[in-house]
């Protein structure tokens, strides 16, 4: 008998797929892949893109209990949490979410997710373009590349302490980031989103 699971992707505009006018972002590529596999006789895996542009982990912890309650499959849920690119950004000299609060928020989100899922993935923050390092962008945000390393380490530590799984898009992007990122230097382009999907497909394959 086929199983039906839900995959819930929490995140910001990179989860949503901003600036990808071709594929709709990495989560949408996975949605189409899972649907194709279902039509070929595999288990059903319904993926929900719950990314919101500009969101930080402050927003995540407000909505994650409600989102989880609203989408709870009988055969189990898979939860992906992809945050940090906005949290670490500074406006007027102050980070939107400092490292301590970022850690606390992610831990809170994980505890909520554990009530609905045994399969929880934390997704790394992507590197951004060198041209943006320490520069105030048109959105008024300033990002420093060293902060990406710091916040990613927080995610890695939480993964180890809570027996979760870490998806390291950061390492995959780092060497070729300038050709995998869009013109704004923060969001992936179509090629970058495609690479993210390629890395994530073996993960969702386990549930098909």
Short description:
This protein is α/β, with parallel strands linked by helices and 208 residues long. The protein is built from eight helices and seven strands; from the N terminus they run E-H-H-E-H-E-E-E-H-E-H-E-H-H-H.
Notes on the structure:
This protein has helices at 13-16, 26-39, 57-70, 99-114, 145-162, 169-174, 177-180, 190-205; strands at residues 4-11, 44-51, 77-82, 90-91, 94-95, 119-123, 165-167. The chain has 208 residues and is of the alpha/beta class. Strand 6 (119-123), helix 5 (145-162) and strand 7 (165-167) form a beta-alpha-beta unit. It starts with a strand and ends with a helix.
Secondary structure layout plus pairing:
Elements: E1 4-11, H1 13-16, H2 26-39, E2 44-51, H3 57-70, E3 77-82, E4 90-91, E5 94-95, H4 99-114, E6 119-123, H5 145-162, E7 165-167, H6 169-174, H7 177-180, H8 190-205
Helix pairs in contact: 2-8, 3-4, 4-5
Number of helices: 8
Cα gyration radius (Å): 17 Å
> What distance separates the N and C termini?
12 Å
Shape: globular
Percent helix: 40-55%
Average pLDDT score: 96
Number of strands: 7
Structural class call reads alpha/beta
Outline the biggest β-sheet. Answer: 5 strands, parallel
Defining key terms:
two-stranded antiparallel ribbon; globular; 208 residues; 44% helix; alpha/beta; single chain; 8 helices
